[in-house]
Structure formats: structure tokens, C-alpha cells
Amino acid sequence: MNSANHDVLRVEDARKELKVGEVTVHALKGVSLSVKQGEFLGIIGPSGSGKSTLLGLIGGLDTPTDGKVFIDGTDITRLNERELTRIRNEKIGFVFQAFNLIPTLTALENVSLPIQFARKQQFNPAKRAAELLDTFGLGDRLDHRPAQLSGGQQQRVAIARALANNPPLLLADEPTGNLDTSSTDVVMNALRDVQRKFNTTIIIVTHNMDIASQVDRLITLVDGKIADDIDPRSTAQRAAVQILKEKRATGETPAVR
Ligand SMILES: Nc1ncnc2c1ncn2[C@@H]1O[C@H](COP(=O)(O)OP(=O)(O)OP(=O)(O)O)[C@@H](O)[C@H]1O
Ligand SMILES: [Mg+2]
Q1: Is 50 a pocket residue for ligand 1 (Cβ < 6 Å)?
Q2: CA 62 to ligand 2 center in whole angstroms
Q3: Which residue ranges make up each domain of the chain?
């Protein structure tokens, strides 16, 4: 399990059925997926296609009706609550759609908290928190409480907090939903940095096609199933090459990229 690029995550034929009154919703209809350590994965798909449900199963916040979820080779669907909590604390950083920051604590304290609670403390809490917040462009907001921060800034604090204990796996449900273009760039650059430095596996759900085009691997969920699984950057390259070819054929001067 120590090789550089083993499967940090494996989902096997995961299904999720939810009962609402008499109606059964099939939120996931058999999803299988392997993700390597250090991969930057995006998940897109229409509203209601099962993106948050899938992320919840991967993060151990919910259990599948059927199927398995392996984190670092351990099937987390078979763990009891205590074992699951431990895996979640040690291996998974989670950024929720609602950021869940503690309102009475400053940004620095919010990010320090999970470091103080870690079983094996590997960082100085305040130092690590300050460094992370600085990476996300909040070096001058350490002492602000959530209510004294903008929505986008709170979102970045939530991402920094999810990374506090350097988890091998970061899961984020629309982490840039509230951000303008320049803050989105700050977040994407910071996530890339984290991926490169720590070989962190990052899985983000997004509706933003700008972000979707920047990930290493892009999965499309439609109606509870994986409809597409591509490398958006090489696809983009193929498309660009195709355009160049067509321009040559028509005698136009190809634009240099
Ligand atoms: N707690 C629940 N009880 C019943 N049905 C649910 C529950 N949570 C989600 N669903 C249903 O499961 C399906 C998948 O929901 P999910 O939240 O995973 O979608 P999503 O792809 O994240 O959508 P969005 O882009 O709107 O966030 C939807 O049809 C939804 O109505
Ligand atoms: Mg969702």
C-alpha cells in the first residue's frame, strides 16, 4: 500500500436507494470507480444526478444500499462507527456545500481545531493553520470570525480546515460555488499546489466548466450512473489539433496556441 500511486479509493458497484414515503429514489444505480493517489478528479452532472450522494459514500458519511467503498484497501462499508470515525479523521478532508465553520472561533482557530484533535499530532496547530490560510490568500484574515468574512473567504477557510491534517484524500462538494473568478483561481492554484506538494488525491464536484476543464480526470454522472470518464485536458488538446487541421485544409493560417 505504500507505492506512490496505488488506488487510494475504489468504489465497486455502489447503489443507493432512498425511501421517501411510498417512493424509492435510486440515487446511485451501480457506480464503479478507481482513483489513484495524487489524482485530481472532477465530478460534473445535472442536479439530482447523484454527485453529493457519491461523495457522501466515499467520505463515509453515508453507507451504500449495495456495493463497496475501499479507502486505502479498507472496505469502509463494513466498519463500525468508531473505526469509520478514525478513517475519516486520518484519511479524509471534507468540504461541504455549507461550510460548517464554528461561528465563535476565528479563521485561525477554525483551521487549528482538527490539528489539535488529531490522534497523532504532526503539525504545530497555529503555525500550520496560518500557513494554510496564507496559501489560500487569507494571511491577513487570521483573526476574523466567519461572520466577519465574505462567503468566498469562509469557503476558503473551510478548504484550509479540511486540509489541516494533510489528509491523503480531499473531497469537496462545489468548493468554488460562491467564489468570483479571481478567488476561484486562488483556490484552484492552491489545490494544485497541495496536490503537487503532498500527492493529495482531490475529488471535487463542480458546476463550473472552467474548473472542470482543469482537472486531470473528469467524470460525468447522469441519472445515478457514470456516463463519461475522460481526461479533459487531452480531449481539449485533441479538439485544438482538430481545429488546426481544419484550418489548414481550408487554407487559413493556423493560430499559434
Ligand atoms: N435524503 C434524501 N432522501 C431522499 N432522496 C434524496 C435524499 N438526498 C438526495 N436524494 C435524491 O437523490 C438524488 C441524488 O441527489 P444528490 O444530492 O446526490 O444530487 P446532486 O447530483 O448532488 O445534485 P445537485 O447538483 O443539485 O447538488 C436526487 O434525486 C435527490 O432528490
Ligand atoms: Mg449536490
Answers
A1: yes
A2: 14
A3: 7-249
Sequential pLDDT tens for the chain (257 residues):
444 568 999 999 999 999 989 999 999 999 999 999 999 999 999 999 999 999 999 999 999 999 999 999 999 999 999 999 999 988 999 988 777 899 999 999 999 999 998 888 889 999 999 999 999 999 999 999 999 998 889 989 999 999 999 999 999 998 887 788 888 888 898 899 899 988 999 999 998 888 898 999 999 999 999 999 999 888 766 666 667 777 766 766 544 44
Out of 3.80.10.10, 1.10.260.40, 3.10.310.50, 3.40.50.300, which CATH number does the structure's domain 7-249 have?
Answer: 3.40.50.300
Measured from the Cα of 221, ligand 1's closest atom is 21
How far is residue 17's CA from residue 28's CA, in Å, rounded to a whole number? 7
